[in-house]
Amino acid sequence: MSIRTASDAVQAALEAARWAPSVHNTQPWSFAVSGDEIGLRADTGRRLRVGDPAGRELLISCGAALFTIRTAIRRAGFEPVVRALPDPDRPSLLALVRPGAGTGPDEHTRVLAGEIERRRTHRSGFTTLPVPDRLVRSLAATAGQEGAALLVLAPPAVEAVAALTRAAQIVQSEDRPRHLEVVRWARPPGSARKDGVPAGAYPHDEPRTDPAFAQRDYAWRHDWGNPADQAGSTSPGVVTVLTTAGDTREDWLKAGEALQHVLLKASAYGVSAAFHTQVLEMDHLRAFLREELCGGAHPQMIMRLGITFDDAETVRRPVGDLLS
């Protein structure tokens, strides 16, 4: 059934936004609807108070939701009108979005919208099937359209980032408050919770990639995880860093929009992403990465891109729980 009114477009956008990616699947957003305008708000109660004290990862997550809203509105036949960070006195109000002039969605928009519910985060190695260079260049151009940059790392830099990730994971696993914060978002088998990382969404054992990229220990002291996730998955994939020229709240929001645009386009070509944020949660390591490998640009996300045949489990909260 076609969508014909702005109200229908708003409802479609809300349904789509809940599928956006977020750190540990915290889904740190809420929405307020006034007429045909959506207010995107940061749910600060879901911020990682130890791992993300400044709210950088929270705003990146919300930026991904913002791009999803934009895409759904455009798919519904309207041009989205966005006011980002509209009120300095209400810092949790991140954007106001409404359907604008009517427009026919192009093929690119239809393809992206079709991947919103299909896209999944991967948490292990990839198959050895290559990601085409032409697609990688296209994904980098896509990030640029949203005001960010996607840096594709050469082999020596990949080794360095893998080593930094392993070091950060070791240190963080010994930091009890930080580690317990991660475990809080791990879901045991059979859990009815609609947020966090389900037990079937990560490998039981450490991924065997070369070089090795450390994964979060969601199954800490538990026999959880997917034992089959390792089969044939040994490639680290294409290792990239999403960067921005600045490091303000506006930049973080833009990074999230760029991230989701890249992820949806990659998904349309059968390419998944695995994220590694440990290094970026430690200021001195993030500064090292910026100066030594990112040419002074601010790293916002480290992600590996590759091909997998695993269908990872995921959960999302219903729209009713997101409205405020």
C-alpha geometry: globular
What is the structural class?
alpha+beta
Oligomer designation: single chain
Under CATH, the homologous superfamily of the largest domain reads: NADH Oxidase
CATH architecture of the largest domain: 3-Layer(aba) Sandwich
Major sheet strand order = 1-2-4-3
Q: What is the CATH top level name of the largest domain? A: Alpha Beta
Listing every helix as H and every strand as E from the N terminus to the C terminus, the arrangement reads HEEHEEHHEHHEHEHEH
Distance between the termini: 28 Å
Give the CATH topology of the largest domain: NADH Oxidase
Per DSSP, the total helix count is 9
Mean pLDDT: 93
Ranges where pLDDT stays below 50 over 5 or more residues in a row are none
Taken together, the total number of domains comes to 2
Strand-residue proportion: 15-25%
Classify the helix fraction into a percent range.
25-40%
Largest sheet: 4 strands, antiparallel
Alpha carbon gyration radius: 19 Å
Count of DSSP strands: 8
Can you give a write-up of this model?
The strands form two sheets. A four-stranded antiparallel sheet has the order 1-2-4-3. By secondary structure, the protein is of the alpha+beta class. It is built from nine helices and eight strands. The chain has helices at residues 6-17, 56-75, 107-115, 133-145, 155-173, 176-184, 249-268, 283-293, 319-322; strands at 29-34, 37-42, 78-84, 93-102, 149-152, 238-244, 272-275, 298-306. It is globular, with a radius of gyration of 19 Å. It folds into two domains: 6-118 and 316-322, NADH Oxidase (3-Layer(aba) Sandwich), CATH 3.40.109.10; 133-306, NADH Oxidase. The two termini are 28 Å apart. InterPro entries: Nitroreductase-like, Nitroreductase/BluB.
